[in-house]
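This part of the workshop introduces the protein records we will be handling. The structure tokens are whole numbers drawn from a learned vocabulary of backbone shapes. The record below serves as our worked example for the rest of this section.

===
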Amino acid sequence: MAGFRVNLRLKAVLPMAGVLLAGIVIFVWITLSFEGPKRQHVLFVASAGAIAICAAMLAVLAVLVQRPLVELQEKIARLRAGDLAVSVGFASRNDEIGDLGRNFNEMVRQLRESREEIERLHGTQMSKAEHLATLGELAAGLAHDIRNPLAGIAGVMDIIARDIPASSPSRQVVHEVQKEIIDIQKILTDLLAYARPKPPDFRSSDLNETAEHAVVLARQQVLSRPIQIEIAKEPSLPPVEHDAQQIQQLLLNLLLNAIQVTEGAGRVDVKLESRDGLAVIRVKDTGRGIAPEHLPLIFRPFFTTKGAGTGLGLSLARRIVENHGGRINVESTVGKGSEFTLCLPLRKTTPGPASS
């Protein structure tokens, strides 16, 4: 229930009336020494003076204080209704009321600029989304059309490889061609995964095992390199509703990226935690790190700092995490390495919009 509201004018009158009344009482007590008509005349003049002073102060209060506050209240109501073109007229005053007006006008200006910037960014993002949707459909069609003949080429190269003698120098050429075919197939797979994402198949299972499977696969890539991949499980982590295949693919992609950016001896650590109702996976490497100007861009589609690749790996990683209702962050220091942090809810939640 709202409290009792007292009009500003009344608030000002009551103290003034009290002071004036006290003054009149004192004045009356002093004038008691007068007698006859002279006493009445003095009392009349004192009362008239008190009333005149009170009226003058009320008028000053109405002009200097109440009127600006009423105007401010009206402008706030218009602002609440969405009118960002409002401004108060008492901002030019050189007092505290003027400071209030200038602060209000500045706040409205910042709100107006922020809304204009949001509308501009929204238009830009919508245009990009339409462009990427068209590009995705085109990529999906091309990938589908290329994969079939590419599979035929791969089969022919396998037959040729079996028929070429082991001592033939052509065998190395065939091996390189087969390697390039595998790279093309991976690019096509990434394009299809990005253009036509598969919805997660949520199942309640042990996230420790999912992460461990990704680590085992990544270790196979560094058998001949001085890079250690370690995992620290979280025994107290309850079962997590997730698509084990997609999360494993995501982690494996992060691990392979970490291996690629690690020159010479290095280390990649995978650590699982349970925090604030979330399952947290940290992937930390000792690689070359990411330049500060690239950090805001690494999750964008087709952005890559590597000489090869589609630049879709991290974009797909973010899409997978967001489809699980989670988030992914990165911190990096050039020359010291990077750390990716995945936060997943323990239970299935409504997925956020996939970021493009």
Summary: DSSP finds seven helices and seven strands in the chain. The radius of gyration is 38 Å. Residues 88 and 142 are 60 Å apart (CA to CA). Confidence is low (pLDDT under 50) at residues 351-356.
